[in-house]
Amino acid sequence: MPDATMPDVTLTPTGPALAPRYREPADRPAPANPYLRLFALPGTRAFVLGNLIARLPVGMFGVGIVLLIARSYDSYALAGSVSAAGLVASGLTAPWIARLVDRYGQARVAPPAVLWAVLGQLTLVACVHERAPAWALVATTLLTSTAPNLGGMSRARWAHLLKDDPDSLHTANAFEQAADELCFMLGPVLAALLCSALFPAAGALTGSALLLTGTLLFAAQRATEPPVAPRTATAGPSPLRAPGMPALLAMFLATGAVFGSMEVSTLAYVDGPGAGPVLALQAAGSCVAGLVYGRVRRAVPLAACLAAMTALMTLPLPAAALTGSLPALAGALLLAGMATAPTMVTGMGTVQRLTPEGRLNEGMTLAVTALLGGIAIGSATGGWLVDHAPSPTYGFLLPPVAAALALTARVTARSRA
Question: What residues contact residue 109 under an 8 Å CB cut-off, 6+ apart?
């Protein structure tokens, strides 16, 4: 069998010469589509599949727990408060878990941490079933706070694989944000359908099973796992001390409040099985925008992304207040979501640039922690407002206000730099 690496030759009167016919190259050219180039890398498809399965419950737990508690206790304020308590606890524990991931590796830390979080979810469901007092629900939800930042671990793998290719890393970050939005798009729909068609706890229970299964599949892909950082690297200054990081975290905090208040306000306004699909449209708009943004060679300034998000987040309020039409609200949420992904992609890219080497999981987890803290504030504030305001429509005042605060934090930080 001829060697494919040797050139074809023909005999001429003066000796051998290259044959003037096609020779198949030894290496196939890289795909023109930047997303196909990502998945041409060995092992990327396997770790992405497991990570997506594990991240889908992120979009399920919020809606599943809110619907479960609201229907059992007839209080969106209590549901929002319990959800907020879980998010705050996760925000406090996530940086420490990320530090363990940086030091000991994803495969050693993620499975036991997720197993404990799943046990916490099962305990919370049992407490709601037994009509436990409110303080018990808040205390129990603290047990779920050990789940690691799965999206951050996936981004860390891309950062390791593409450390010498910034354009491809931008595309990978855009894909990861689109994956987040896909989970937030499908998760609420799945949770709402399960809670409505089966029983109120079905969303949380299904999410727990997917979280554990996906994490085990993801952790099993050792070939693409980033190397463990040396102790000297993890013992250095915290990413919090990196120049510009505190202001960036303040921006993520306000951005999280946009998401938390929008979710609770929409759930209260729709108040039925249609809430999941309506919320999914916001994530769908963000998902499409993120995929398009990933093909752009140069990132848009973060302040411009935040300004666009502030403007688009004003749309759901008139759609709900003036028309009272569910299709109009759904269309407004679709448009409102289109500035979310570019904001998050650009923000996460900035985090990656600011984080010291060897502490990438911790740096990105701090950003997610700030985001979760903002979601908690938005959920609690939104739940209180829709319970005490004359109409749930008032809840849609909160997202544009929070987006404006995020823009203010970014512009102020840039002006002081």
Answer: 97, 100, 101, 148
Question: What count of other Cβ atoms lies within 10 Å of the Cβ of residue 320?
Answer: 25
Residue with tokens 């108040």: 271
The percent of residues above 90 in pLDDT, for the chain, comes to 10
Indicate if the pLDDT at residue 21 is higher than 70: no
CA distances from 368 to 104, 123, 140, 196 (A): 21, 25, 22, 30
Full 3-state SS string of the chain: CCCCCCCCEEEECCEEEECCCCCCCCCCCCCCCHHHHHHCCCCHHHHHHHHHHHHHHHHHHHHHHHHHHHHHHCCHHHHHHHHHHHHHHHHHHHHHHHHHHHHHCHHHHHHHHHHHHHHHHHHHHHHHHCCCCHHHHHHHHHHHHHCCCHHHHHHHHHHHHCCCCHHHHHHHHHHHHHHHHHHHHHHHHHHHHHHHHCCCCHHHHHHHHHHHHHHHHHHCCCCCCCCCCCHHHHCCCCHHHCCCHHHHHHHHHHHHHHHHHHHHHHHHHHCCCCHHHHHHHHHHHHHHHHHHHHCCCCCCCHHHHHHHHHHHCCCHHHHHHHHCCHHHHHHHHHHHHHHHHHHHHHHHHHHHHHCCCCCHHHHHHHHHHHHHHHHHHHHHHHHHHHHHCCCHHHHHHHHHHHHHHHHHHHHHHHHHC
168: Cα within 13 Å, side-chain hemisphere: 21
Phi, psi of 49 (to 5 degrees): -60, -50
Tell whether the model's pLDDT for residue 25 goes beyond 50.
no
Residue-range domain boundaries for the chain? 43-227+243-416
Residue 174 binned pLDDT confidence (cut-offs 50, 70, 90): confident
Evaluate whether 376 touches 260 at the Cβ level (below 8 Å). Answer: yes
What dotted CATH number matches 43-227+243-416?
1.20.1250.20
Distance separating alpha carbons of residues 372 and 58, to the nearest angstrom: 11
Q: Is the pLDDT of residue 2 over 80?
A: no
| Sign (positive or negative) of CA dihedral 31, 37, 41, 43 | negative
Residue 336 CA to residue 320 CA, distance in Å, equals 13
